[in-house]
Amino acid sequence: MNGAIAENGSGRPRVAVVTGGSGGIGGAVARRLAADGTAVVVHYAGSAAKAEAIVESITAAGGTAVAHSGDIAEPAEMTELFDAAEARFGGIDVVVNTAGIMLLAPLAEMELADFDRMHRVNVRGTFVVSRLAARRLRPGGSLINFSTSVTRLQQSGYGGYAATKGAVEAMTLILARELRGRDVTVNAVAPGPTATPLFIEGKSEELIAKIAAAAPLERLGTPQDIAEAVAFLAGPGGRWINGQVLFSNGGIA
User: I need a labelling partner for 133 at 20 to 30 A (CA). Which of 16, 38, 94, 116 fits?
Assistant: First the structure.
């Protein structure tokens, strides 16, 4: 940690809610924001041990963090999360919505239940959290949703997943315009292939190497790469970036 305390426009410490904070990218985002002095609420759905490990790593480094569970697609549970964050820290300045799932199959072979499951988490979940963020973020705040570079790559097998993230982009860009006058930015980050356990699982070394070579930088992204993009959008340097999709993918698309 750098020891500095991130403050909002009122001089109060900044507070962030990171959904999916127990995941590879979500955990990196939580740690990166905490490194800037932001108090972080690490949301998780089913990985309490992983979320607590993220909290412990942040507090061990001198930061402030707490874990909180909840179903991202259930308004009552996400309202409880936001209520808890406000009760603990006095308000919310940053919401980073990393929670999401990816189920792959050609469209002709995809089970409707799998598509519905992705839609519930990726689209409905983003809607639920974005609506709360729109109502509760303090002036000077930021909402950062998550899309994917696959929306531009048109890769076989990713149609159902990319469709959910296209919906996320549409909601994000329109919400940015709807919050005119609130001094709240709304953007999306669209990662490319990123070396998380979820990405690596089930892939051969040969396939991973092929995917890595596709980017001009000839490597996979890291969760830390994505966290830096989020920290930029959430920080003072990103205040003039609004209603945009930031592709963090090493030039792959």
Answer: 116
Helix and strand numbers (H, E) in the chain are 10, 7
- Alpha-carbon distances, residue 46 vs 21, 68, 187, 238, 242 (angstroms): 11, 10, 27, 32, 32
The count of structural domains within the chain is 1
Q: How far is CA 29 from CA 19, 57, 210, 233, in A?
A: 10, 13, 27, 12
Contact 192, 221 (CB under 8 A): yes
The residue behind tokens 């469709």 is: 163
Query: Which among 86, 98, 100, 101 has a CA at the least distance from the CA of 230?
Result: 98
CATH number assigned to the domain comprising residue 150 = 3.40.50.720
Asked whether residue 208 is domain-assigned, the answer is yes
Q: For the chain, which ranges sit under pLDDT 70?
A: 1-5, 7-11
Task: Give the tokens for residue 57.
Answer: 């790593």
Quick: pLDDT tens for 118-137.
999 999 999 999 999 999 99
Which of 89, 115, 161, 199 is an active site residue? 161
